Amino acid sequence: MSTNSSMRDEIDLCSVILVLGAVLLIGGFIAYFYPKTIWGIVIGYPYRDLGALLIVLGVVMIIAGAFLRTYAPRKTHAFYCKYCGTKNTEGAIYCKRCGKKIGQGSKEV
């Protein structure tokens, strides 16, 4: 399995937070405007408090997900040194354990 396909298989936390926020927002609007009826006559809206809470939580989660997506550190690929097998970060010129130069011959994780 290549690195690109494994990265696509991972679930992005920011996307999960954004989707959950959207679901809470939609559920909040449904609960806020859901009427209690008796024989077809609207007598009240019993879920207004719950609906307002869900709307606020949904908005907060959408903002948090957007903030995390913008400011979260980017994932870097790791490479193994072909001499000693130590895991090094992408862009490293020398191995952090043995100090030998690592180049095109390194194996990607």
Describe the protein in words.
There is one protein chain. With 109 residues, this protein is α+β, with helices and mostly antiparallel strands. The protein has helices at residues 3-9, 13-33, 48-71; strands at 36-38, 41-44, 78-80, 87-89, 107-108. The strands form two sheets. It has a three-stranded antiparallel β-sheet with strand order 4-3-5, with no helix packed on it. Strands 1-2 form a two-stranded antiparallel sheet. The longest helix is centred in the middle third of the chain and has 24 residues, at 48-71. It starts with a helix and ends with a strand. The relative contact order is 0.15.
Number of strands: 5
Count up the helices.
3
Strand content: 5-15%
Mean pLDDT value: 80
Kindly provide the radius of gyration, computed on alpha-carbon positions and rounded to a whole number of angstroms: 25 Å
Uncertain segments of ≥5 residues (pLDDT<50)?
1-9
Please summarize the sheet with the most strands. 3 strands, antiparallel
Structural class given helices, strands, pairing?
A: alpha+beta
Number of domains: 2
Reading side by side through the largest sheet, how are the strands ordered?
A: 4-3-5
Helices and strands, in order, run as HHEEHEEE
Give the distance, in angstroms, between the N- and C-terminal Cα atoms: 10 Å
Shape: rod-shaped
Which structural traits does this protein have?
3 helices; two-stranded antiparallel sheet; about 50% helix; about 110 residues; single chain; rod-shaped; alpha+beta; three-stranded antiparallel sheet; 2 domains
